[in-house]
């Protein structure tokens, strides 16, 4: 016994009947289905014969549905609607994408906390954030909407088409209260465990060279090869790390991280730029937001310097 044995052999006749019942017209149904009116009439008669019941009452210029016809139309209407909705989901066009490539730490600590805001502002687009670990990638091959670079080669980018300077880095050592309940003095930095984000210890070497601390470094070194890992270790009380303070503003404001007493902020060799290859309204808006967000972060850092008496003589707030 075949399944659905009570259904008519030709499912096309059900489609024709649904159109006739919905439009209440043989002529209009024929136009919608792109067939002749006589073909529509034959399909309905064949369906009535197979079901052994009358579905339509034919009058001189109009038609009416019988009770069986009304019942059949309601079932067909609901199921055709469900089928159409299901198939439309399969065929729904993919959302347009906004692709932002970014230096890893910037993506993690600046972009990621703002993803919800970007999704809300651009609901018709899919936000794609790609961490970039390549240093100074060739711009001529870039295909993202925006590329946020962290580079030591300022001369390679400044003044070039599509390049916007974002900011310098503002460096200082940070630690957490898990490491010491007492405020750490700047001189104590030499004796504490040092956490490094790079194998060459460059951030620490540069900061120590400009800090003019008296004495010999005694603290042990641990390399994590990632600023995010170094910061995680710092937050768990494993040591002190030198970092760009703009990347840890939330932790500084909440005092999850602290700077040693009498600390002096310094610039590193690195700066942030944003590259926009192709201009579009949305990419323009996001770039403007990045610029404004950066300016706001710098102002917040200035206020923290005043609040905690951090020295800023060595930094240029307008460096660019």
From TrEMBL:
GO terms for molecular function: DNA-binding transcription factor activity; sequence-specific DNA binding. Belongs to the LysR transcriptional regulatory family. Residues 12-66 form the HTH lysR-type domain. This is Transcriptional regulator, LysR family protein. GO terms for biological process: DNA-templated transcription. Gene3D superfamilies: Periplasmic binding protein-like II (3.40.190.10), Winged helix-like DNA-binding domain superfamily/Winged helix DNA-binding domain (1.10.10.10). It comes from Vibrio sinaloensis DSM 21326. It comes from the Bacteria. Keywords: DNA-binding, Transcription, Transcription regulation.
């Amino acid at each position: 016994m075949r399944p659905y044995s009570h259904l008519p052999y030709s499912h096309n006749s059900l489609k024709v009947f649904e159109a006739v019942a919905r439009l209440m017209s043989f002529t209009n149904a024929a136009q919608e289905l792109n067939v002749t009116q006589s073909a529509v009439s034959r399909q309905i008669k064949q369906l009535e014969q197979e079901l052994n019941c009358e579905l339509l009452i034919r009058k001189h210029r109009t038609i009416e549905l019988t009770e069986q016809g009304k019942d059949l139309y309601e079932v067909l209407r609901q199921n055709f609607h469900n089928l159409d909705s299901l198939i439309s989901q399969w065929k729904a066009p993919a959302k347009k994408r906004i692709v932002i490539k970014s230096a890893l730490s910037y993506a993690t600590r600046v972009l990621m906390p703002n993803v919800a805001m970007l999704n809300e502002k651009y609901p018709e687009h899919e936000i794609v954030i790609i961490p970039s670990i390549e240093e100074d990638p060739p711009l001529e091959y870039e295909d993202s909407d925006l590329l946020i670079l962290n580079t030591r080669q300022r001369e390679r980018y400044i003044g070039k088409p599509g390049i916007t300077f974002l900011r310098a880095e503002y460096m200082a050592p940070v630690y957490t209260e898990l490491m010491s309940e007492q405020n750490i003095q700047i001189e104590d930095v030499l004796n504490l465990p040092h956490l490094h984000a790079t194998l060459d210890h460059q951030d620490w070497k540069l900061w120590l060279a400009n800090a003019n601390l008296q004495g010999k470094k005694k603290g042990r070194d641990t390399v994590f090869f990632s600023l995010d890992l170094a910061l995680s270790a710092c937050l768990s009380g494993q040591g002190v790390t030198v970092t760009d303070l703009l990347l840890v503003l939330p932790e500084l404001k909440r005092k999850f991280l602290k700077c040693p007493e009498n600390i002096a902020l310094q610039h590193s060799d690195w700066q942030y730029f944003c590259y926009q290859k192709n201009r579009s309204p949305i990419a323009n808006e996001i770039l403007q937001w990045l610029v404004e967000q950066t300016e706001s972060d710098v102002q917040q850092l200035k206020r923290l310097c005043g609040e905690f008496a951090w020295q800023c003589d060595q930094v240029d707030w307008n460096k660019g």
